Records
---
Amino acid sequence: MSENATFPGDKIASIEEYEAGYNTFDDGDMVRAATIGQKDIDKTTRIASVKHPKTLSIPKDGDIVIGTVAAVMSSMIAVSIDFINGKPTTSKVECICGTRNIRIRNIALVNDIVTLKILSHLNGTIHATISEPHLGVLFTKCRKCGGKVVPMRDAIKCTECAWIDERKLSSNFGKSDFVHLRE
Ligand SMILES: [Zn+2]
């Protein structure tokens, strides 16, 4: 490996001089590598990145991700990322998404498929938003019986037991393209 090789946690640059770019995080003092790769220091944009030998596995700010809801808490959901900008990723990086400001009863359930936009990386945690119209639940099931649901105005209705519930639906909800993403 060359002298530009990085291992996870390696210091790449000082945050006073550089911003954390691809495959890096900032620990409050230094930009550090989040993955094995090659250092990529851009002196013009002042961004320090790491080029990963394979596909990029850590989403960057502004990326659209699709993932599986891993946990639902009172003010946030945790999502295991399956796709970054439409490209599959096997690294199973998790992001969290604040839900405090959304007035919906069940924003998403565990195992729902959601699409989110990455907002920031903070202390090694990836933060995302679900608030825009195209963001939200792509695939869900009835909370009572696990049956298929159909959208009904701002709500969803179970086709099996007629239970009416709420989700933060994506404007792409119900488009069958997304169903086969679930393997
Ligand atoms: Zn049902």
---
Amino acid sequence: MDKTTIYWQLILCRVPRFLFTAWLAGALGLGGVYFAQAQEPQALVPQAIMASGWARPSIADRPTVAYLTLINRGTDDRLLVVTSPTSAKIEIHSHKMQNNIMRMRRLDALPLPANSTTTMAPHGNHLMLFGLAKPLTENMALPLTLYFEKTPPLTLTIRVQNSPPRAQSKQE
Ligand SMILES: [Cu+2]
């Protein structure tokens, strides 16, 4: 075995391994760029948000409350506006204890983190329905349209009932 053969063996054993590592790193790097580019348009694709809920009967036409459960299987989003033909104005409220007093505060938006379920419930976040066209009575169907920051609007019908439903109404 002459010196040249040993030299080439070294080249073949060491250098290609180094080159392979460099190529792999480059390929992964390029792959990352490729996937980032490939994934970007997906943000424009509608994300799946499902909603269900219930509303409390109103006392005459006084404001009443509704509670939604929102399942976000897409990316981070926010609930911005809720409308209903039965209500002149709907606000998203938080409900917190402050100095032993329950306080409601209007929220500009309700965060809906990616891959999570956001639940409104008594003594927590809720919808406040103002200016009812007619009193809400038990078993009445209440249509709602939800407007999100990213996801297209979602219309659903929730039921008016005195207590939380066991099986909540499904998205339409
Ligand atoms: Cu409220």
